[in-house]
Write a structure and sequence with these properties.
The protein is α/β, with parallel strands linked by helices. The chain has a single domain, classed as Arginase, Chain A (3-Layer(aba) Sandwich). Helices cover about 40% and strands about 15% of the residues. The strands form two sheets. It has a six-stranded parallel β-sheet, sandwiched between helices. Helix 6 links the parallel strand 4 and strand 5. The longest helix is centred in the first third of the chain and has 20 residues. It is globular. The two termini are about 20 Å apart. The relative contact order is 0.15. Bound molecules: zinc ion. Zinc ion binds next to loops.
Amino acid sequence: MERINSSGLIHDMEEVPATEVSESQLELAHPASFIQEIVNSEPEDGLTKVEADTFMSPGSLRAARLAAGANASATESVLSGKNQRAFCAIRPPGHHAEIAQAMGFCLFNNVAIAAETALQHKDINRVAILDFDVHHCNGTVDIFKDRDEVLVCSSFQEDFYPYRYLEFTNEHIINTPLAAGSTGSAFRKKVERDWVPALLSHKPDFIFISAGFDAHRDDPLGQLSLLEEDYIWVTRLIVDIANDLSRGQLVSTLEGGYDLAALANCVEAHVQVLVDG
Ligand SMILES: [Zn+2]
């Protein structure tokens, strides 16, 4: 947020404070029993371990509700025609959260709630979720694995966390693995090879981006070597496709990204392309 504010980009956007997601919006992606389990897991002080990599402290539940709520309201804003594109500057991320399993820092699947919100609208019959985080979006795949109206394309570092849903063969689930050490040229070639034909064939009415920036060269968790220019390239590609197929309707939400300097650079570059349209 410091970078978006200091870059001047904020003057070209409408800044909307996040509001907490409603129960009915959460239940579009997760069963009530799981939501209750997460609610019950928040400690009064200290930390509780929800699973191997995922902890909650006081305030975690509100943060997760705001993150999911930002996605739902950004989607509603685009559906209403008030805005054409939106970026959700949120944490915690969401794409590892499965139907009934918190995982990998994710409590609720933000992008899935956004996609489900869009699919409630009478004019939205097909959507696409494009995920360029360094980690595979196992949670998003879990939620939409039997729903062919939702195209899910995920690029990720091969043989890397979370080691789930990698052999999935449904046509609407496009897995794009990249060997450790891959640079932007390999990423671009594979996105053009795998994602573009899938998008042209799916013809989504609305496109979502799970925008993780942990495939950046400087990220401490991943071993891919993308640079700001690669994120500009992929964002430009997606905005152009949204303009051609989806009346420009696009919501991007933050996923991973753990080198704060690289994260700020990448978010600024990504949001600049979203502003340019
Ligand atoms: Zn990640």
